[in-house]
Every structure is written in C-alpha cells, then in structure tokens.
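FOLDING PROBLEM:
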Amino acid sequence: MSTNEVDLLVVGTGAAGLTAAIAAADAGLQVLVVESTGKWGGTTAVSGGGLWMPVNPLMLRAGVKDSAGEALEYMEQAIGEAGPASSPERRRAFLDSGPEVVRLLGRLGVRWRRATHYPDYYPDRPGGKVGRGIEAAPFDSKKLGSWYATARAADGLPAPVMTNDVWLLARAWSTPAGFLRGAQFVFRTLGGLVTGKRLVGLGGALSCALMHIVLTQKTQVRLNSPLTELIVEDGAVVGAIVGGAPIRARKGVVLAAGGFAHNSEWRQKHHGIPGYSAAPEGDLGTAIEAGAKVGAALELMDDAWWGAGTEGPDGHNGFVLSERSMPFSLVVDATGKRFTNESASYIDFGHDLLSHPAPAWLVTDVRQARRYLSTAYLGKKKEFVAAGQLVEAPTLDELAGKIGIDPAALAATVERFNGFARAGVDQDFGRGRTVYDNYYGDPRVKPNPNLGPVERGPFRALRLVPGDLGTKGGLLTDADARVLREDGSVIAGLYAAGNTSASVMGRTYPGPGSTIGPAVVFGYRAARHAAGLGGA
C-alpha cells in the first residue's frame, strides 16, 4: 500500500495511538502509525499499565455491582469543576465507551485481568468502588518477533509483574499474603521460562499486546518518523509532514504522541520546575505545538500527573509509591514538618509537595528497610547514598544534621507523629483513614496499617522531588476527541488523545489507571468518528 496517502494517520505508539490504529483498522480504514523515536510504546510501556474502567465487563462478570450513574457521581465528587477538558459530555463519553473498547480489544487478543483489590483513590466519596481497575495479562513478547528489539518495554522490568502483585510483593517477607504472592510470582516467571516464553508485565504487557494486534492487522508502523507540522487546506487538517515528507490523510490525523514531560523550557514556563519525569525521553510536546500552530486551544498546561519522585544518580527519575504508605515512615519538608497525608493519591501528594519548602525527605526507621521492598532505589542503594539522595544515620539528630534540617524541629515532628502511630489515628492529616490508604499498608501493624512509630535506628532519609508520570495539559478536545479552537469550533480532520490532549480527569486522579483508561477510550472514539461510526 502507498503510505504517502492513507485514510488515517496516527502519531504516537502509546496506548492512545495504538488503540486508535486498532479501532480504525477494525472499521476498515487504511492506517499508518508513526513514532518520533526509535522505540515504540510511549509512556504506556514503562507505566503500571492499569486502566481505570468503571462498569467494565470483567467487573460485571465477577458480580461486582457498578453503574455509569455511580461512576459519574464519583467523578463529579472526585474531580469537581475542572473546565472544558472535563466537561459533562466528555465524562459521559468516557464512561459510555469504556466497556466498548474493553470488549473490542479483548475480541482482538488482549487478555484482560481485574486489579481486584485496587480501590478508587477517594473510596469514601459517593460512587467510590473497589476493583474498577483492569490490566493486560503478562504477554509473551516472543510473539512480536523482531519488533520486540525496538520495544520500549524491553528497557523495563523483564518479568511478568502485574498490578495485583505490587501491593503484596512490597511486603513479601513480612506478611503471609505477601509471601504467597511472591511465591506465585516466582512460579509464574519460571512457568514462562519453562514453556519457552518471554513474559512481560505491567505497561509492557499492554503495549506489546496492542502492538501485536496492530501488526496482525497489517498496519504499517514507522519509527524514527517525527511529525513537524500539520497540513491544512480550507481550514481542515488533511495530513502532516512526517520525517520531512508529506503524508496525506483522507479521514484525518490522530495526535497521540504524549505530553511535554521532557521539554524543560515548557516545564519551567508552565510548572516552574525543570521537570523530574518518569516518562520517556521523547515526550517533548511536539504534537501539542503542532496543534497549537493550527489554532487549537490548550488547557491544563500548568498541571501534570504528579507524585513523589527521585533524582537517580544515573539521571533517571524514579517514582515513589508504596514506600510513602508503609508504616515506620513519615515525610517532612525542608523545615522538618509534615505537610500532608503521606498515603494520599500520588497526584494529591505531588500538588502538596510543590507548595511546600523543598527538598522533602521520606524519613524511615530500620524496620521499614528490613520488612518491605523499596523500589525507589532497588539495587542502587550505594549509588543513591554516594549522590546524597539517600542519607543514613544512627540517630534522628544526626540524620537531621546531614539533610540540613533543624534537629529540634525534626524531633518535635517525629514525637508528635509517633503519638498518632501508637494511638492509630493521624489527627493532623488522616493518614490510614481510607481503604486506599490501607492498600499499601501492612495489616499486621496495629492499630493502623499505615502508621508505625519512627523510633528505631539506624534511620534513613530519601530525598523527594515533585516527580510525575507525564504532563496533564494539551490540546482541548470534545467528546469524540476532535480538537477544538478557542471559540469552541472543531478543527476538521484533527483528533487528539492521551497526554497530547487535556485530561478528562481535570486536576485529579480518580482511580488506578486514570491516565491510560481515558487514553484508550478517546483513541477509540477518535477512530470511530473518523470512520463515520459514531459521534456528531
């Protein structure tokens, strides 16, 4: 087939782009997928790989009650008023099409699994549930043949880890349930090796499963093919310049090339920091810029999928998740004071982190290091210590001195916190109050699984920065992922999904997979609209 002219041009190979390509090809369109870097998979490939999908078919088959009405009420409670990116129409479109795209991808080969125990991030609010998250089962990457050599997933964890594993593996040697899950993980890994499979999990499993469908559909994928500008005729987008050459697109162009996590100039302009992102290096905002140049409106550019991050000695930015919730730990800012619920949703934690004196430190006593798995500096403790990112000391006073905090201030904070830990109630920030907080806690620690006194040395302090999983702002789109101008009119022929678009989740993160879930849904809706199968 000629790739100088196609029905639909898809820019980006993360979950949004690959889903758009799959849905378009399934509808009979001729599709070309282009990727700016030499590796495909985008941020999806190095993520947890979960999708927040209310009312999904797996829930219903398991007898877990859910409804679009409950989910919409929950989104209204969790997100609130968030501007046009999270309009009522877009929220309803997300909920309406979630089950559809799950069924489509399942029919074409994705083996879905429920994250059964993973709660919504505000489970105590009306409409909140446990178990709305789904993920792809571990995928045999050998099915991709030579394509796996260019998979971004190949740079990640080469093991069949699943979201359902992570919360228990962190305490694999401290609780019976954790030990059992650790054993199951080992047997799953060995089973793959014995049968000649090369299993990958998490975001790698999802991106590989999606790419396998794309290749099975005979859709062409070009790597090292950056988009530089869109082609506009009579006010409509009819193609793009890719790799220096024009490509015509009869039905339109889907921009799904990620956000601007590694565009330090934009990060400084919009966020006031250079950025400490765990997203891949190709996340430069090129597609957002191309859309803006043809008149697209931008929304939520000042926000990101924030969380606690680390600056690794090798230049890689990590993401700190379960460590914040495990007992025998607390987080303090540069003044030595606590400033938030350490177990809160990572985006809430990140917002609070940005608004307090830097740097922040995760302070732990020896029991956290002995009982729980820390992925923040896994296998690189010496390097983190040498770089001053991880500090150790036999006493809290000495630790305070090493990290530049007033020892008296830290001692007072720890003393107050330890009183809460013994009583089981965090009177300052409510840590350990919800089932979400408890998810990464330790049920054997009483009376609160998230609270344990910080009192036994040696002590550690891990330096935290405002990290992220990608940026939240981008092109403003409607319910069918069509890109809009400032006046609300549609730019014909131009669609956007994933982190290239402003998030339907507004400024928060309602549940596990609130990035990839909408990315998949709006990639699907873009393709369906381009194919004339839905929407306005």
Q: What stands out?
A: DSSP finds 18 helices and 21 strands in the chain. Confidence is low (pLDDT under 50) at residues 178-183. Residues 310-466 form a domain with the Flavocytochrome C3; Chain A, domain 1 fold (CATH 3.90.700.10).
